[in-house]
């Protein structure tokens, strides 16, 4: 029984590690924001946890830093939702001189709307330890591979990642609902699951983790089953021998 208990401990440890790997991407704090139109009505509802992975230079070479967008971030004056082209932009880590930003621009055409542009802006400050650059930097992407969603639906998923010209933007607990005015309930519409080639890396990573987990777990389970059966056979053999 001691041998079986040890194998159970190994199995539980492996499962714990795998569980950690599967959720580690979603550890950014999740915030929810709204944007109102000129009439004061909510026309955009956005929910997400966001992590920026920023490459930068130090005195010893290149490195990266993971920076979480805080839930205290607030929409900038650039955020607007009048017309077919709308924008959502957050500002955070504000100083007298500048602030960090994450932005999403949408365009509506017919029965669909598309995430047209993603932009990030950041300053070289204490959030990038040991940085040798100074000032403000920005990155953006704008292409046809970004997600399209049916009007009246919201774009949502557990995790999706975008490469914003070298800056990784990892989103979790995503619920993006621009054009709230097109939703009957004036709230989140029906879910349309994230489908974009930019987010396929997350799916591939999870599949790889699952595959590795199976390679590790299956032999352990087989070994445990073999040990249990062998012990049962030994007990039965000893019983018959004593008789």
Structure description:
The chain has 243 residues and is an alpha+beta fold. It has a single domain (27-197), classed as Porin (Beta Barrel). The chain is 27% helix and 42% strand. It is built from two helices and twelve strands, in the order H-E-E-E-E-E-E-E-E-E-E-E-E-H. It has helices at 2-23, 200-242, and strands at residues 30-36, 42-58, 61-68, 74-75, 85-92, 100-109, 112-123, 136-141, 148-150, 153-164, 167-178, 190-193. The strands form two sheets. Strands 1, 2, 3, 10, 11 and 12 form a six-stranded mixed beta sheet that branches. Strands 4, 5, 6, 7, 8 and 9 form a six-stranded antiparallel beta sheet that branches. The longest helix is centred in the last third of the chain and has 43 residues, at 200-242.
Main pleated sheet: 6 strands, mixed
Mean pLDDT equals 82
Number of continuous helical runs: 2
Strand content: 35-45%
List how many beta strands DSSP finds.
Answer: 12
């Amino acid at each position: 029984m001691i041998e079986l208990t040890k194998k159970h401990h190994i199995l539980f440890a492996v499962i714990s590690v795998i569980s950690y790997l599967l959720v580690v991407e979603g550890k950014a704090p999740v915030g929810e924001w709204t944007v109102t139109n000129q009439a004061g009505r909510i026309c955009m509802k956005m929910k997400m946890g966001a992590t920026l992975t920023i490459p930068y230079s130090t005195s010893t070479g290149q490195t990266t830093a993971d920076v979480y967008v805080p839930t205290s971030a607030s929409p900038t004056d650039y955020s607007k939702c009048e017309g077919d082209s709308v924008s959502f932009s957050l500002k955070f880590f504000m100083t007298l001189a500048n602030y960090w930003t994450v932005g999403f621009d949408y365009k509506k055409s017919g029965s669909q709307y598309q995430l047209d542009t993603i932009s990030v802006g950041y300053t070289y400050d204490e959030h990038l330890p040991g940085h040798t650059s100074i000032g403000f930097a920005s990155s953006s992407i704008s292409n046809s591979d970004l997600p399209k969603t049916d009007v009246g639906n919201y774009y949502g998923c557990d995790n999706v990642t975008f490469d914003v010209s070298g800056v990784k933007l990892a989103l979790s607990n995503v619920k993006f609902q621009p054009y709230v005015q097109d939703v009957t309930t004036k709230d989140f519409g029906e879910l349309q699951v994230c489908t974009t080639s930019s987010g396929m890396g997350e799916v591939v990573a999870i599949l790889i983790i699952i595959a590795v987990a199976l390679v590790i777990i299956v032999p352990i389970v087989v070994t445990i089953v073999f040990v249990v059966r062998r012990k049962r056979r030994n007990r039965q053999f000893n019983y018959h021998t004593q008789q």
